[in-house]
Amino acid sequence: MPxxxxxxxxxxxxxQLEHYRRDGYIILRGLLAPAEAELLINHFxxxxxxxxxxFYNPASAEAAGGDPLLMYPRVMQPHRFDDLSRQYLLDPxxxxxxxxxxxxEPVAAQSMFYFKPAGARGQAxxxxxxxxxxxxxxxxxxxxxxxxxxxxxxxxxxxxNTQDLEVKCPTEADTTQSFVNHFVAPPDGKRAVxxxxxxxxxxxxxxxxxxxxxxxxSQARFRRSFICHYMAAADEAIAxxxxxxxxxxxEVVERETADGGGPCGNELAI
Length: 270
Known about the structure:
The chain is of the alpha+beta class.
């Protein structure tokens, strides 16, 4: 689709923009087709079955000791070695929405694929920019649902109207429920609400928004998702582990290196 037609078809309404500015997030239903969600699922399940060990190294059931997240670990930065991941990191539909939310040209920093099989722990409430260290602004996530994502299988939860908070120092999380040990408590009077989604829905949220997920308590369902992080072109710095940064054409762009930030989002000590 020509750029002008894409921008017109994906022009956010006043109500949608107001929702994002008020609550710090917005879900665009059906931004990707269900067939595309299935394509990504099949692609990453095949990658898991025949992993490129230099980039992705799942444990055997015996070595994992029954931990489903060791058998199905998240894939970090797949766009660096996988063409399909790079294609969706740079997808023009996602970038068209990002331009409106950022009021600037986006810059791509990260891609991730989560399998989250049945029995997997969730991720305690946190803020993404604690890890990316984008400054002077913050990062912005595009969280693509590939399966039906709901409370039973550990769908995402978000705390509305926390986008204007400073990045908070986390406390210790319950690691029987969360695969990371960082926890950010919502401010008084605010609480996490579910962001139930269907395959192809995309949740966009500000990098300071508190969000997380509960364990996958289903019997046999995955909660697979493809997640990307971006910054605005006007932002000056980001943690080194998210470089190289890419523009919409896939060209490397340079920014200063911010202090701190973990390469996989769970390395920083509390």
